[in-house]
Structure prediction request, 489 residues.
Amino acid sequence: MRLDIRLKNPIKAFIPLKESGKKKKIILEGLSLRGALLKLPKDENFSKKDIVEILIPYQGIELKILAKKIRKSKDGIALEFLIIERETLLKLWKFICNNLYPVSWEVCPYCNSPINHNKICPNCKFSLEIFNPEYVFNHFKRTFLYRVKYLINQVKIDDLINLYLNLNKLLLPKKYYNENIEFVGTCKEMLKVFSLIRKVAPLNIPVLILGKSGTGKELVAQAIYEKSLRKDKPFIVINCAAIPETLLEAELFGYEKGAFTGAHTSKKGKVELANGGVLFLDEIGELPLSLQAKILRFLEDGTVERIGSEKSKKVDVRVIAATNRDLEEEVKNGNFRADLYYRLSVFTIKLPPLKERGNDKIILANYFLKKFGKEYGITSKQFSEDAKKAIMEYHWPGNVRELINKIRRALVLSENEKISPKDLGLDITLNPEFMETNTKKYKKIFIDRSKLLETLERCSFNISKTAKILNISRPTVYNLIKKYKINLH
Prediction:
């Protein structure tokens, strides 16, 4: 039984000669979506390793298809077409359909059984509606297992086992993975991020995510988790900057009853809770040196020891860490252990700031406008052209998180159906004076109340940590607290 319809009549085609820039005429017989028989003179030199480009004339253009030799016989050289892009595949199928002998088959073109004008062959069950636009893709899906079954007989058992394991890694996570629409991107940098996520997700290795505050590091960690084989296990998040140093060890590793004043019962730490799953260490650059050593030990031997216990417990946890700091610089300055950095940075993903993401800014802005508009019951508002221009030109020091805050504010404050730059608080972006990114003036102006309050809450109102994250001085933090009348008590 054939798996592809073949043309009976020979087809004229060409092979481009790169050296001379000319084309060599060839004849293809038995053309199908999978390959053809190349007719060549007997003295034609055609190496076994050759991969050739075939040019098939079609409606004033040439279909370019890469093919490789699979065997040679007295009739010619059998070619197998390599991966064909979707658009070329559709055009090749139309070409085949246009050159088929009159489609009034009495027998099935696949299995040669009588069909009696049926749309589906009674014997092989293949569809015969070849002019249906979706036919070619549906047919490939239906015949996929037949093709695999044929190949299995030619594969060694060890290779077959490896193939099965790789299919598990590749396909099973996709079954459960739900794309997070907030995590979108069309720019070159984000497409690279998505590619890295797909590559690293099935592997049981640490991942270090780098990026400025608000770029979506937790979304990357979540995406890796969603596409991994640990999808149905816990995903535990701990923000190393938000928990006071005196409590952080207990949060991470847990404690036994009576380990310290107030420890009335035993409690599992985040590492134990993540057993079998993924632990996301957000803002790991803020982790005290004393705890860095304990995290390193956990990464090296996979054991944890609760405070107040002398017994170690084995755990199976994949670690994903994130930071907005330059850890290489922190290592040089003695603020971060080199051995821990090397252990975490087995695989690194760097997120671009929103200012470098081109049209992604508008895509995200429209998404959040729709999302929060629905949440607030305000579904008719849109961005004005000036607002879109402001969104594109603004530097976004707070990245996606700042974009969210400004859109929420605009939905509430805007009195018109069209949201203006003023509603977004982006009037000043039209003034080049404020587009200088490295000035203190710029930083002070754009650390608004919501951003300051959010950072303070993340850092449990620790002024030093807040200043570090915002990259400003402690006195500036106090001045902003006073300016925005934020109550610290």
User: Anything to note?
Assistant: Confidence is low (pLDDT under 50) at residues 172-179, 429-445. The first strand starts at residue 11 and ends at 16. DSSP finds 18 helices and 17 strands in the chain.
